[in-house]
Design a protein that fits this description.
The chain is mostly helical. The protein has six helices and two strands. A two-stranded antiparallel ribbon has the order 1-2. Strand 1 and strand 2 form a beta hairpin. Helix 2 runs antiparallel to helix 3, helix 4 runs antiparallel to helix 5 and helix 5 packs across helix 6. The longest helix is centred in the N-terminal third of the chain and has 26 residues.
């Protein structure tokens, strides 16, 4: 009973709720520091110093969060990568970098992780279907990247070309019916 109770506080990736709260607190402190640096940009210091310091903080926090997610076993599927990249790109935009995007990213990751854990608890079948759907979407996205530019995915089989350069019959295909021409005696 005690083991089951302690497992309920662990999310799918193995990160406890307490650890998620610590992560939210850490990035909240980073976002407050970045906001205060932005205020310095408007008041005392010139424009270049806060810009450089904020970009340096963004690079360090972005790398640290990426490594943290990967090391803690968070499955970085398409939706999580898009969430993370949205925060990274938003932090590099001049006006949007004053928003608490790092905090929003960690809260979104935490809610996705906890939501999947709750889904597995209440409906393992639905969790399995969600996982298969996510895998199929990842495969489809990878397949699109393998196509040449401008090409569309097609289910048609390309014709086989023989040594003469003309299309060959596909094995098992029925040849077209040819009209018989009437000869001179018919």
């Amino acid at each position: 009973m005690e083991e089951q109770k302690s497992k309920s506080f662990i999310t799918k990736s193995g990160i406890s709720i307490f650890e998620w709260c610590l992560a939210v607190g850490a990035v909240l402190v980073v976002d407050v520091i970045q906001f205060l640096i932005e205020l310095l940009d408007l008041t005392i210091v010139g424009a270049i110093v806060p810009l450089v310091v904020n970009r340096f903080i963004d690079v360090v926090v972005g790398l640290a969060l990426g490594f943290y997610y990967k090391l803690r076993g968070i499955d970085l599927d398409t939706k999580r990568i898009l969430t993370f990249m949205g925060a990274v790109l938003g932090e590099f935009m001049p006006v949007a970098d004053a928003l608490p995007l790092w905090t929003a990213d960690v809260i979104l990751m935490m809610s996705m992780d906890i939501g999947e854990r709750q889904l597995e608890t209440f409906s393992p079948e639905a969790a399995e279907a969600l996982h298969k759907t996510a895998q199929a979407a990842d495969v489809a996205n990878k397949a699109k990247t393998l196509l040449p530019p401008g090409a569309k995915p097609s289910s048609a089989v390309p014709p086989r070309i023989g040594a003469s350069g003309r299309p060959m019959a596909t094995p098992g295909a029925v040849p077209p019916v040819m009209r018989q021409q009437a000869g001179p005696g018919a």
